[in-house]
Each structure stands twice: as C-alpha cells, then as structure tokens.
Write a structure and sequence with these properties.
The structure is a homodimer.
Chain A: H1 3-14, E1 19-22, H2 25-32, E2 39-42, E3 47-51, H3 56-62, E4 69-73, H4 79-85, E5 91-94, H5 101-111, E6 115-118, H6 122-127, H7 132-155, H8 162-175, E7 180-181, E8 186-189, E9 210-215, E10 217-219, E11 222-223, E12 226-232, H9 240-256, H10 263-276, E13 286-288, E14 295-299, E15 312-315, E16 318-321, E17 325-328, E18 331-335, E19 340-342, E20 352-353
Parallel strand pairs in A: 1-5, 3-4, 5-6, 12-20
Antiparallel strand pairs in A: 1-2, 2-3, 7-10, 8-9, 9-12, 10-11, 13-14, 15-18, 16-17, 18-19
Helix pairs in contact in A: 7-8, 9-10
Chain lengths: ~350, ~350
C-alpha cells in the first residue's frame, strides 16, 4: 500500500473510523496520483477507486501494484456491491467541506452507512507538510516563474497592454515546461495597481507606471506564486516610501518564518508596522500552496496555529492607495526547522523596465 | 425588481417557500449580473447580496436601482442580522446540489432556519430557456468560433504540433473579443483522434491525419461549442464512410431538433443508426450551454424530457475506433417552435488543410 494511503488508514483508525469516502479530486490526486473523475473508497481491508469507462485506462496507467488500489468501473457495480464496501463498518468518514448536501444523502442511501462522520479537513491538514518530491516540484515551478520574470524585465515596453503582458506570461510558462497557469495572472499598471485583485485590461503601460505582476505556474501539478511591483521608466518618488515599507516587512517576515513561529504573531507584526505608518494590510499575509494555489495554512492574524517544517507558504505583504497605486511583493517560501528557504529567487529591489525604446 | 428575480420569487412562493439562499455563483450571475464571491438572499420582502469589502465597489457598479438588491458587507452583519433575514419564514430553499454538507449545517445555525428545503435545480431548469439577450451573446460567441475555424483552415501546416494549434485558438479568441476559452480546447490528430476527450500533445500533424478540433469561447460570459474533424493533405479512404455516417446523423439530428421533440427518441435515433453500422455512440449526443459549457438539458437516451423553444444545445455525434482514429462533428443549435437554427455556420463537408508547403 502506498505510504500516503497507509498514513490515512492509520489516521482514521485513530479516530475510530473503519472506512472513508474521499471525493475531493485534489485529495485523490495527493493520495494516489490519479487525476480522473471518481471516488476513492477506503474500506475495512481494501482500497477501491470507482470511476467510469472514460478513465479506466488512464487510471490503470498511473497506479502500480504497490498502491494497493482496486479499480472498479461504476457501470459494473451493483446495488449489493455498494452495500458491501462498508459492511461491518461502524463509522465511515466523509469530506463534509467537499461533498454537497445532495451527495451526502445519496451516499448514506447507496452505501447503507450507519454513522457518516465529518473528518474536518483531515487530508488537507496532512497536505500542509510537503515531502521531498513535492518540494522539488514546487521548486521547479518557482524556477520557471523566476525565469519568466527575468524574461519580462527585458520584454516589457511602453505602450504594451496589460493583457499582452499577461498573455506573454502564459505563453512563456507553456513553452518552458510548465503545465500552465497556477491561477489567472494579474498585471496591473498605474492606477490599476491599487486594486489587489485586478484583472489585466487593455490599458497601455506608460512611463512612471508601477506594474504589479502576480503570477504562478503549475509543474507536474504543483504551484508557484510570486508578485513583484516593477516600474516603467522610473520610480515615482511618492511610491518609494511605500515600496520600501512593503519590502522591509517582506524581508522581516522571511526572517520570522520558521518551525514553531506563531502565524498570528507574524501576521500581527506586519499589520502593526503598516498601521504605525498609516496603512492597512487589507488581505492575508500569505497562504499555503501545493497541488492547489490556496491551501492550508492561511497566514493571517486569525490563525492560532504555528508554522511547521516542510510547509510551503507565500509571503506577500501589500499596500494599496485607492485610486492611486499599490505595491505587493510576494515570494514562495519553504519553512524549515531553523528558518526559511526562499524558493523565489527574483530580485526585490527597485526594478525599472521599458527604459529603452 | 429585475424580471429574473421576480420570476424566482413567484416560483418559490408557488412551492410554499418564503425565502431562498442562492450560493451557486453561476445562478447569481444569471439572476443579477453579479460576478463576485457572495450569497444572494431572497428574503420575505427584500433581496440582499452578502459579499465582502473586496467586491463591494464592483457589485455596486453592476447593479441598478431597478434590480432591487441591497448589498451588505459581511463584516458589518451581526448575529442578529443573520437571524432577521428569514424571520417569519416557514420554509427557506437552498441549493442542495451546490452547497456542501458543512455549509448546510452552518446556514441552518447562522440563519436559524426552521425548514431548509431542497429546490431541485429550480434555477438551472429556468436557465435552459434563453432570453433574447442571452441568445445574441451565444450567437456572438459562435460567430467568433466560426471565424477562428476559418483562420485555422489557412493556418494549419504539416509539422505543427497539436499544442501549437490549441494555443493559436486561445490567442485568436482573445484577440477577437472573446473573454477567453469556454473549455480546454481539444486538438487530436491521427491516432489521438480516437480518444473523445484527448488533450493536445506535442505530436506533429502528418499528411493523412484526421484532426479533431473541439473548441469554444466565452463572450460576455456565454459559451459556444463546436467540433470539426478535418484532414491534413488528403482524406484517407478508410475514414470516409465513418465521416459520412457521422455527418448524416448530425444533419438528421438538426432536422429533428425542435420544440416538443423527445430527447430520448432523437438520441436513440442516432444510437440505433450507429449500431446498425456496427458502431456505438460512446458519449451523449449533446448538452445545453449558456453561462456554463455543460448545462441542462443533457441530450442522451436516458433523458425523458422534450426540447423547448429557446433552448440552446449542442449536436455532436461521434465515432471512435480505438487505436485508429475518430470523427466528431458538433454544432451549437437554437431550438425554435418550428425547428432549429444552427448558430455554428462552418462547413461540414470534407475539409482539407495543410495542402500547401
């Protein structure tokens, strides 16, 4: 049995559950490598993946005998088969944050489940701690993203539109081995940079524009996430103190990120320093990432947990002056026992682009 | 109050419900035009949209006084406010196929709901019947897609990869006024065309390849969907009878599509004709489309409903010979009282591309 499924079986046994239905495709991919529609059944003795004929071949090609997963075509599963999966199981777990109310009712009826128990993000919590292979895939995604940023610094010209730059980013990712975008790219120039979640527009880059670029790719399923605010032609003097304040806090956060650090305290540190200077941190300081671009842990001052070694999280303070401009600087960071390793290597000092015709 | 919300209020009253919580963002977009995270509350007398500070400005800019929707920032809603929304409501509806079991429990607790009632795709069923504006947006999306196909017929060359062609499609859509892709484009050449759900690969186009291109864009939120199987250089003789059989059934389906037509009977007609010739229809004959690429009605032989005027559905018979090749031809079609109007105008006879160096 593969080690991730073995872990899950041990874990649910600890909670006095004899089985579990896993429906969230990201959790299924995490546990088995399978990327196909279907349901993973952890039964009393065996593990099953229920899928349909469209995916059978693909699923079989991903699994090895070592995974210990029996693949079933739903078309060949009878009413009785369904009832047999959890025979003699007192308590069966389910993902209450993933399955709909309608599915919940259908599962109870179909599998004849006695006690269907909420599992409270059991697998998502385990996904916070990355193994070596996962870390190396995220590292590769970050590397491609750094290369893309390097390319953009030479590519961007006055008069290009935000959309053009966003398209170039997607093209670069695909040409350089990434699966594709990890999320919709943000390219926000001039006043548009004052919106934290801006969408690329037809606005052209003008001299003196700050340009906030928030981008990430996926590599073999794993995400990267970085943001830089760069400048077209020159750095306007009124932006400099804000940039310096954001960068100071980004660097300070990098120092604080380590195993055992309180997520609340680190977030409060940035919030308070911004407040002392008359600004607010209007979004979270960061978030975990991995198979999904936003995963646990969420780095904000409401989270009472601590960081742990082998978590991968973003560090992305930002300040936004409505109607004027904004600055955000974001790295993807690996937490270790003694500190943090920045997986994003791009420069964070003032970067001026489009200073040639 | 806008007519779609007025319809919904009348509809839930008919079912003896005094309120409803709408959580599915596609249904919210349909009813209000709002594209933002949040919850639409149909209360006893008023309508509310609960969102957070990130979206307030955007939401206010979409709504007019005529919509009759009060926008609330969740940060300013107290415990008591939540309980007041459905005060004196005996039955409140919810989307059991959209909200998770965890949300279901949270809603009951937060809103102090007495009877929380399943609404069985109430809004999705209404979305099947398109109004004039919706039809004209789908028409525009189909027009852009036809233009893209015209472009591809000149663009494709021997030696290009499937991925290159897929990227050109996305680029063309964005350059020609579409919001972007309606779904991940399929470009499947040679043997790859035998997989109905193929993903574009680095395989190069070779002379004699059938190339199945399944593509669609979104225009102001509304989707198009078309498929053509075209040929690089020449049409291999062994593919011709299959192509002719698929095309014959596609044309026959177009004739059968009209208000009152039985979805089951039309699907069976194609299934049976394929069977008589020794083939199976391995996927549905079609599906509704609109704000989503796959919507009700699903056109297959298990659906006992009839077509209605102003439904927009695809017509996409296909035959796949494992390991060899496949042919699919798909149009987006508007159902009318007396017949159907094909919104996809591209040619369906043998199309040969890449016949120049």
């Amino acid at each position: 049995m593969n080690p991730k499924i073995k872990w899950l079986r041990d874990r649910i046994n600890m909670e006095n559950m004899q089985g579990m239905i896993i429906s969230n495709p990201v959790n299924i991919k995490y546990l088995t490598g399978i990327e196909a529609e279907g349901t993973l059944i952890i039964a009393r003795k065996e593990n099953f993946f229920l899928t349909d004929s469209r995916y059978l071949e693909e699923v079989q090609s991903v699994l090895t005998i070592n995974d210990g997963i029996i693949v079933n075509d739903v078309a060949s599963i009878s009413r009785d088969d369904y009832e047999n999966f959890f025979l003699f199981c007192e308590n069966v777990g389910f993902e209450e944050n993933y399955i709909t109310y309608a599915m919940y009712k259908k599962y109870i009826e179909r599998y004849k489940i006695n006690n269907f128990e909420e599992t409270e993000y059991l697998i998502e919590k385990q996904r916070m701690i990355k193994d070596e292979e996962e870390i190396s895939l995220i590292e590769k995604a970050c590397y491609i993203t750094d290369q893309c940023f390097k390319h953009l610094c030479n590519y961007i010209r006055i008069g290009m539109t935000e959309k053009q730059i966003a398209e170039e980013i997607e093209y670069f990712f695909k040409e350089n081995g990434a699966d594709g975008l990890a999320f919709e790219t943000i390219v926000a120039s001039g006043k548009n940079s004052s919106k934290p979640h801006a969408v690329p527009t037809d606005k052209k880059i003008e001299a003196g524009d700050p340009i906030t670029i928030d981008m990430g790719c996926k590599y073999k399923g794993y995400c990267s996430d970085m943001t830089r605010t760069i400048f077209a032609g020159y750095v306007p003097v009124q932006i400099q103190p804000i940039y310096d304040l954001v960068l100071k806090n980004e660097l300070q956060t990098l120092k604080e990120y380590k195993e055992g650090a309180s997520i609340r305290v680190v977030s409060k540190m940035v919030e308070n320093d911004f407040k002392l200077n008359g600004y607010d941190l209007v979004h979270s300081l960061g978030h975990g990432l991995g198979l999904e671009i936003h995963e646990m842990p969420y780095i904000n001052s409401k989270n009472d947990n601590v960081l742990k070694a082998n978590m991968v999280v973003t560090n992305e303070p930002g300040i936004y002056i409505p109607g004027s401009f904004g600055v955000r600087i974001e790295d993807t960071v690996l937490i270790t026992k003694s500190g943090s390793i920045n997986l994003t290597k791009s420069d964070k000092n003032y970067i001026i682009v489009a200073n040639r015709a």
